[in-house]
Amino acid sequence: MGSKQVSKSSLEEISIRGLGVIESSNIEFKPGLTVLTGETGAGKTMVLTALGLVLGSKSDSDLVRAGQERAVITGKFAVPKDIAKLIIEGGGEIDDGSVVITRTVSTEGKSRVLVGGAVSSAAAVNQFAQSLVEIHAQSSSSKLNKPAVSRELLDRFAGVDLGEYQSIFGQYQEMIDRIADLQSQLSQRDKEMALLAEFASEFAKLAPKSGELSQIENEIAKLGSVEQLNQAVSSSLNLLEDDEICAINLLQQMRKNLDQVTGKDSELDKITERFTETLLNLSDVGSDLTSYLSNLEADPNRFATLQERKASLNSLLKRYGKGSERDMAFEQLIIDGQNAKAKMADLSGGDERVRELEKEAQKLFEQLKTAALAISKDRKTSGEKLAKLVTDEIKNLAMPNAKFVIEQKVADSSNPKNYSITGLDEIAILFAAHVGATPLSLSKVASGGELSRVMLALEVVIAEAEPIGTYIFDEVDAGVGGKAAVEVGRRLAKLAKSAQVIVITHLPQVAVWADNHLVVKKSESGLVTQSDVIEMSEDARKIEIARMLSGQEDSKTAQEHATELLAIVRNS
Predict the structure, then answer these.
(1) pLDDT tens digits along 168-201
(2) I need a surface site. Which of 403, 432, 465, 525 has the fewest CB within 10 A?
(3) Which pLDDT tens digit goes with each residue over 301-323?
(4) Where are the domains of the chain?
(5) Which fold has domain 1-131+469-483+500-536?
(6) 3-class DSSP assignment, residue 10
């Protein structure tokens, strides 16, 4: 890894080829507040779409520029250690603290994703994308209606740590499962006890030993073949050592003949030597066969006993064995036999055991309750604080009478069924647009523009506690103008102190707050190419803001107004 230490992620650049109106463009992003402006239809929103694709959103072949085979979007992000670790574990590379994510969409609708050079999937990118970038377009703010998201936001703001609670919750669930298991076993108990007793007594009678079945079979095979073995060995010995045609004697003759010419030719000596050695080995075989023969004796009684033992063991195995592989089933049978007594004891003391486990469960439940109620209390105080802070922020964003409410419903803590992995609370974010209105869920009462502003207010308040490195706002200024728009800009600039903020806007009052101002233009042909995304210098910026104010770049009053707006920022 390189030298760059990254605590929060940030978007460093994005390159777009063949997407919508964009033919080819490479945009660098800096820290702080970046504003993207430009005429309507000039492809500002395409930049947002491109970023969505890099972050794993659904692809659509219609996005590919007419006449092109594919759209290729590459985003480069500086990433903190924990995300870098995820990427490296997935086979990707991190270069000096940054990762490159490439998304290709073809006209056939095929989509490819590379993360740090390693093949990945949109779903995998989606996993960590949520901690890289938060996109607020009118359509995406709806996630605040999900209770889980509202709760997570509140928990992050409150610094709630669910670790200890979740560990107790897990232990409690496990204990409940154990009790249920044992109780269902107890209902089967009498039947099982009878079966176990029968098995235990038969097992004790036979007392099988590990590996015994194979051993018996081997011995049976040997005893059953005593006659055959005897005959084969005797005949062989006769041939080897018989008085008349004794093979060994004949070979000894050969050796004597060869011995007479020892030393005459080294090549023959070698052969003689080999022959002598073979002869000695043959004599050894003879004596081994003789001793084998003397130990070989028929034992009809032993043979019958073994046959009987084998049959008993097989019958026990057939009745109580588990599995189709015989030797494994036999070994398992022995283990079951050794455990049968203990299992019977377990079952007979079952009721007592259930009572013990229930006592333990009750203790765990008390701990769970204490932990859950402490979390609920934290959420209540933090929820009130968060609601007040966000309401104050909204008031400055052209919604003077609006109210932001965090509703907390705490379930009855005495009922174990009410506990979830996150506690007893259901958190909802509600909103009332004017005095006296009943707060309702955001989606029901806030317009698109209001939603984006509520999100902005919320992000500004929570940003410190948020791990997210980059915020993108599109249409955050819908339905705002004048003084309120200046305040929207001020809030975005404030948020940009703790994260990177990218804003697509058509409001000059917002654009003046930018640390970096990019303009997207359409060329004569109606396409956006590299030369059409321009980083504004101080002077050029004044002209662009004048254009945004009046639609005329060279209007004198607009330029004066632009200068005035820029001064507000400098002095704040």
Answers:
(1) 999 999 999 989 988 887 787 778 888 888 999 9
(2) 525
(3) 888 899 999 999 999 999 988 88
(4) 1-131+469-483+500-536, 189-348
(5) Rossmann fold (3.40.50)
(6) strand
